[in-house]
Amino acid sequence: MNKKQISSALISVFDKTGLAPIIHELNSQGVTFYSTGGTEKFIRDMGYEVTAVEDVTGYPSILGGRVKTLHPKVFGGILNRQEVSGDQTALEQFEIPQIDLVIVDLYPFEETVAAGVSEEEIVEKIDIGGIALIRAAAKNFKDTFCVSDKKDYQDFLDILIQSNGATNIEQRKKYSVKAFQTSSHYDAAIFNHFNQEEEVLKLSIKTAKTLRYGENPHQKGHFFGPLSDLLEQIHGKEISYNNLLDIDAAVSLMLEFYNGDCSFAILKHNNACGFATRPNLKEAYLDALAGDPVSAFGGVLITNKSIDLETANEINSLFCEVIVAPNFKAEALKLLKEKKNRIILVQKDIPLPSTTYRSCLNGILVQERDSKTDNAKELDFKTTKKPNEQEIEDLIFASKICKHTKSNTIVLAKNSQLLASGTGQTSRIDALNQAVEKAKYFNFDLNGAVMASDAFFPFPDCVEIAHKTGIRSILQPGGSIKDQLSINYCNENDLSMVFTGTRHFKH
């Protein structure tokens, strides 16, 4: 087991939270303390003896605290190999104390950046000595124990108590890996903050969640990221891999409508199967459900408003996997919790990351998030007939949904309600026909409806089909060399068409 007794400890932490029980236990085991600055004072204030690092090195803290522990008498104590006689001779010759344990909490670089302070303040929160101590102790895990994360304090305390300060090689190696993770994450954060030119991808995410399985039961799955910063789960079963994909699609879609009137969306397999905006939430939910009550079974529900009891009563009769809202009225939440497995999430008001990542072949695709939202002011009216005020509103409504629907896609809408969409088809004609047939199946009247497409029409075939179903206005990005063919058809058949100038593919 290669047991090593902890007899001495170098402790230098920025945040002292949770440290006191460890100090107390180490002292009870007769451990000698070495420390610096505020941590040294913290240990003394607890009533325990501690040797200042400057008394070991013969040098005070200099350069405003930039240099404190960077000295051979410190790093020799950490890096010496106890089984190598030459190392031990050097310790005696240069009067270097043996250090068995290193506890370090780094300067809070990421937190400082997030606070929006000056570059000078950010630079001063780049830890040098702490990183060096962590790497040294981690390298010498055969002899030295390294604690580099406050989250591990309780686990380490348990080890101390259970083994009376004697650690084994497996424990030291485990904590060494944790230490290298701490240092690499810290360096990645610094690089990513300052890097402006290097086309290098450095990702380091400390928060991880093991999922029940991946996309299918035979696949392992994990989620890496601070999910709780964005969503608070207040009820239900464990969130699955597929749940997360649907939730991602739902949150991204609803952000397009977040500050507007009451909106409700129902998603299935990452696409909206129902969506409506109404003066009150119950109406929005019922009209969203009407868009496709069949697909809504087992879907993800999301809204931009607090869910009230009246709306909850309607929702409760539907089997759904997930409900997402910015808030829930107490009586509504009580009702919705009656289904024990139903996942209920509170969405917090924080933005999504500005960059998206996706695995591809033997690498990763990186791009800016599509944050462009089509709006009425930027529409380019291409036909003789112009859409009226309601049609413009519906066109923008349809465009927002189209943006978050798998390509190729066609979205049909009327009176701020999703009538149907054709999703993920290999041709735009197939997407349109799928949408039309679906709308008819659920008895929607397409007369006066609008149509949105995520790509241009190289031929007037889709426009002709739309016209024959009663659709009166069309939105598309434009950009085909044969755009005029579709424009001409609209002019000849009293349809209006607008261009957005922006393509929103979603693959």
- Give the count of structural domains: 3
CATH class of the largest domain: Alpha Beta
Sheet having the most strands? 6 strands, mixed
Strand order of the largest sheet: 10-15-14-13-11-12
Query: Looking at this structure, what is the CATH superfamily of the largest domain?
Result: Methylglyoxal synthase-like domain
Number of strands: 23
- Decide which structural class fits the backbone: alpha/beta
What is the CATH architecture annotation of the largest domain?
3-Layer(aba) Sandwich
Named CATH topology of the largest domain: Rossmann fold
Question: Can you count the helices?
Answer: 19
Determine the fraction of residues in helical runs and give it as a percent range.
25-40%
Defining key terms:
single chain; 507 residues; alpha/beta; Cytidine Deaminase, domain 2; 3 domains; 6-stranded mixed sheet; 19 helices
Structure report:
- The protein is built from 19 helices and 23 strands.
- The protein has 507 residues and is an alpha/beta fold.
- It has 3 domains: 4-194, 3-Layer(aba) Sandwich (Rossmann fold); 222-347, AICAR transformylase, duplication domain (Cytidine Deaminase, domain 2, 3-Layer(aba) Sandwich); 376-499, Cytidine Deaminase, domain 2 (3-Layer(aba) Sandwich), CATH 3.40.140.20.
- The protein is elongated.
Concise structural overview:
Helices cover 37% and strands 20% of the residues. The protein is α/β, with parallel strands linked by helices and 507 residues long.
